[in-house]
Amino acid sequence: MTRDGKIVQSGKYDDLLESGMDFKALVVAHETSMELVEHSMVMPVENLNQPTMALLTTSINRGTIGDNNSIDKPKSSKKSSKLVQEEERATGKVSFRMYKLYCTEAFGWWGITTILVLSLLWQVSLMASDYWLAYESSEERAKLFNPSLFIYVYAIIAVVSCVLLLARSYFFTLMGLRTAQLFFTQIVHSILHAPMSFFDTTPSGRILSRVRKNLVQRGTSS
To answer: In the chain, where are the structural domains located?
Structure first.
């Protein structure tokens, strides 16, 4: 808990609540504001009590919520409003949009097209080497078999196949590394420009785990 840029309270969550100081007032103010937001979603906007909101703002600034001079909290059916919401696990299949975003983030659809073309050409080169081997070893070509020509053509096909395989592997690795770098840059930019409410309601361990997972994927791609 800080005040005027200085740390005035530190400790566990329950201990800070039992101390009865500024942290408890901040939690109570958060719970009250959450209940007012939920209450405003049910009531029409024109029926909201504007003086009550003004008193709430004044009480939050003064840190007097919970004293005798503070306003009464609206009763809610919920027992408490947590400052940090627990993380929920998403279930189901990964949507096609996420796969498309990952594949097109670095070079767009041109990157996918390039990989597909290189893969197709590599498969064609493999088929060409098998076809040339079967053609030269057939009975019709037995009398006209030329060892020098056979080795020369087969070597050219093998070299072309190796070049295509290296090009495909290099471009695939480059696209994966570029995608990981872009995602990591976006994560860092979002964290650095996030409001303070994001850090108040999101555990730091959750943020670090997300960034660490992206770093692992980035290292795997490299």
So the answer is: 2-62, 96-221
Q: How many CB atoms lie within 10 A of CB 166?
A: 12
What is the per-residue pLDDT across 157-172, written as a single tens digit (0 to 9) for each?
Answer: 999 999 999 999 999 9
35, 38, 39, 44: CA torsion to nearest 10: 150
Strand partners, 2: 7
**Rg over CA atoms, the chain:** 33
Report pLDDT digits (tens) over 2-47: 666 667 667 777 777 777 666 677 777 777 777 776 665 555 444 4
Distance CA 155, CA 161 (A): 10
Query: Which tokens hold the place of 92?
Result: 């189901």
Please give the full DSSP string across 80-137, using - where no structure is assigned. Answer: ---SSPPP----SPPPHHHHHHHHHTTTTHHHHHHHHHHHHHHHHHHHHHHHHHHHHT
